[in-house]
Amino acid sequence: MIHELYFVILYSAVSELTRTGMKKTRRNALNTASLPAAAPPWTFLTKHTHVLWCIYQEPEIRLRDVAERVGITERMVQKIVAELVLCGYLRIEKNGRRNVYQLQVDQPLRHALESHCTVGQILELLHRSKRRART
After folding, report:
1. CB neighbour burial string for 76-111, b if at least 16 within 10 angstroms, e if fewer
2. Do the beta carbons of residue 59 and residue 102 sit within 8 Å?
3. Can you give the pLDDT of all 135 residues of the chain as single tens digits?
4. CA–CA gap between residue 34 and residue 23 (Å, rounded)
5. Which helix (H) or strand (E) holds 90?
6. Beta-carbon contacts of residue 112 (< 8 Å; ≥ 6 apart)
7. Is 14 within 8 Å of 40 (Cβ atoms)?
8. Element holding 103 (H helix, E strand)
9. How many CB atoms lie within 10 A of CB 1?
């Protein structure tokens, strides 16, 4: 009952924001063009996945650019990168004044439902899908 009430309140708030015209900002980088007017603002992939995807595509990317692409703050990207390094999904090497990020693509995903897959498999799937979309 409490969960249902919470959902109704949350859904009402999101509907109100959508109806009144939620402004697109760095914090709201969702592609809302294909969403129905009352769609809740969530995505299938997490911010951690979005950060990994940006680094996978461009290993020397600046965290400021990652933040812009993902639609979160640079501080949040720094926190996510630190967590990914701590858990062994990412390594950082200095190249002059720049960082070069190395993904550890053989690391398994963390949740029991997907632990049979590796980070590299997920990123490769996204990469193949992106190539197909271009052709």
Report:
1. bbeebbeebeeeebbeeeeeeeebebebeeeeebee
2. yes
3. 344 433 334 444 444 444 444 444 444 455 656 666 677 778 889 999 999 999 999 999 999 999 999 999 999 999 999 999 999 999 999 999 999 999 999 999 999 999 999 999 999 999 988 777 776
4. 16
5. strand 90-95
6. none
7. yes
8. strand 98-103
9. 5
User: Does the model's pTM come out above 0.90?
Assistant: no
Q: At a CB cut-off of 8 Å and minimum separation 6, what does 68 contact?
A: 26
Both tokens of residue 91?
A: 């390594």
Lookup: tokens for 32: 């809302």
